[in-house]
Amino acid sequence: MVGAWCFLDAYGPHDLAGSPGMRVGPHPHIGLQTVTWLLSGEVLHRDSLGNRQEIRPGQLNIMTAGSGISHSEETPAEHGPVLQGVQLWVALPDPDRHMPPAFAHHADLPVIREGGLTATVLMGTLAGATSPARCHTPLMAAEITLTAGTTTSIPVNPTFEYAILTLDGETTTAGTALKPGPLLYVGAGHSTLDLSAGPPTRVLLLGGEPFEEKLVMWWNFVARTSEEVVAAREAWNAAEHNAGAGPFGEVLGYDGPRIPAPPMPITTLVARGRVR
Known about the structure:
Its cofactor is Fe cation. GO terms for molecular function: metal ion binding. This protein is mostly beta strands. The chain is built from 1 helix and 23 strands. A hairpin with a 2-residue loop joins β22 and β23.
């Protein structure tokens, strides 16, 4: 974990020539926020609250599962030639994890420009710029673009822990060269983070106050006990033949099947905390 950030899926770039692109059928979530950010392409979001929202680069989708929600994600019929993006999960703290589900789309986010740096603040605050996205614990996320050869120092919160993912190009920070692929954990206690770009580079900066609650993460669920996960799984699969029943509702408009929950493991799931 990095603060309350508990999952990151970086995908693409995918060539969509002759392909329908992304097709993720209706599936459930509890206890988390999904955060979707695109570098190229388009994704159409539908959820059981009735939201239908197309997201494009420079825009942010945040779905707060709370006590339960379901959604689908797909490439729209008319789309660009390439799809690349990230989806992240934020673990909701115990006081908020049973809240009613919600959805927000932010098409206008704060942007910082200084020299060869351009930073879009997705969540939280960076260098005095604050995103309108709702956070339930102290955290931040920003996409940072560096022109070729740029070296810069970014002010950060020393009480947060941080990690950096290179999306395009190559950057060097804390003496480590970072190409797309691995996530570099740089820890806490920093007042600045130094970044140097070789070619033109884009990175994702994540940070947050260390999250001390223990979690059970299984399939699409973030919970605190194995029993909670079992109950959520049973509720989702039971609703297959009774559309809209249970805590997850129904996704309307997706042309395809819902995704059933897989079998539970033969052992009891154990809550685990962050280890550093």
